[in-house]
Amino acid sequence: MGLVETEAIVLRTYRLAEADKIVVCLTEKAGLVRGVAAGARRLKSRFGASLEPFTLVQLVYFEKEGRELVTLKSAEILRSYFDLARDPEAQSAFDYFGELVLEFSPPSQVDERIYRMVRATTDALAERRELIKGLTCYFELWMLRLSGFLPGMRRCVDCGRDLQAVEVSKYITAEGVLRCGHCADGEGRRLEQTTYGRLGSLQAQKPFAWAEEFSAIPSESQKFLSDLARRLVRRVLEKETRLNKTAITGTSAKLSPMSLATESDNL
Predict the structure, then answer these.
(1) Total tally of structural domains belonging to the chain
(2) 72 and 111 inside one domain
(3) How many Å apart are CA 251 and CA 223, to the nearest integer?
(4) Amino acid 105: pLDDT
(5) Within this chain, do residues 76 and 128 fall inside the same structural domain, yes or no?
(6) Model's pTM, two decimal places?
(7) Residue of 11, 3, 6 lying closest to 71 (CA atoms)
(8) Is residue 86 in a domain?
(9) Are 180 and 172 in contact (CB under 8 A)?
(10) Domain containing residue 41
(11) Three-class SS of residue 93?
(12) Pairing between strand 178-180 and 20-27?
């Protein structure tokens, strides 16, 4: 308890009273933190523009035992993405990233892996907006993985056979479970090697590299991976996210005929 200083990414802000804000941040040292920024809405506030969503800041706050909201003391801008506010697609992606973080990350649960992933993907999007589709898919899959909801990709869930071998056929179910051809016995969808390569390399590659290779695979494979990631997110959350993901991914609101499911679900 007491004063805490940490690097943080601002995710959301809400109005409070006449001049204050409630600020939700993902911090490097303390996980999700919700706090009150007194006077933040005043024209000459000491916080200035530092509390705009998806601003990287050096945050100082005071935490008192038994209180859910901390008191923000200062926020120094380390990196801003203000120029992206003019790009509706990029802004929608940032909003979606923030929504997933809030859904998957319990308050005050420290996981530096989530923080590093969020920052790396955000930086990548700021540098290469044309990779937005691949970066969004990368973000979704990593949030699932770090939360324990993405099944292993390297071995058959039943027999343990190494799926990385080129000669081994791979099948994936609607739940994202991978099996070799022998264990799948025709259930699920067969994965082409290029598509499996994107799933299998998720852990080894940083956002830039993964999204660049994603953009190089056939459009049908891109669509399949994007649909898979969204389906798994929806399955875990047991609801649709509020964001219109058509604006993010450029895919249709319904699963394509290549869907894993037998029915056509609204995403």
Answers:
(1) 2
(2) no
(3) 7
(4) 87
(5) no
(6) 0.86
(7) 3
(8) no
(9) no
(10) 2-80
(11) helix
(12) unpaired
Between 132-146 and 88-104, two packed helices, what is the crossing angle to 10 degrees?
A: 0
**Which three-class secondary structure state does DSSP give residue 1?**
coil
List, for residues 99-109, the tens digit of each pLDDT value.
999 999 887 78
Residue type, 217: I
CATH number at residue 129: 1.20.1440
The Cβ-side half-sphere exposure at 54, using a 13 Å CA radius, reads 24
Three-class SS state of 184: helix
The per-residue pLDDT for 212 is 96
Cα separation, 11 vs 22, in Å, equals: 11
pLDDT at 1: 66
DSSP string, 29-40: TTEEEEEEETTT
Statement to judge: residues 208 and 238 lie in one domain: yes
Q: Are residues 189 and 133 in the same domain?
A: yes
89 within some domain: no
206: left (phi over 0), alpha (psi -120 to 50) or beta: beta
Note whether 83 and 94 are within 8 A (CB). Answer: no
In sequence order, the 6+-apart residues with CB closer than 8 A to the CB of 14 are 21, 22, 24
Q: DSSP string of 72-87? A: EEEEEEEE--GGGGG-
Q: What is the pLDDT of residues 122-175, one digit of tens each?
A: 999 999 999 999 999 999 999 999 998 988 888 999 999 999 888 899 999 888
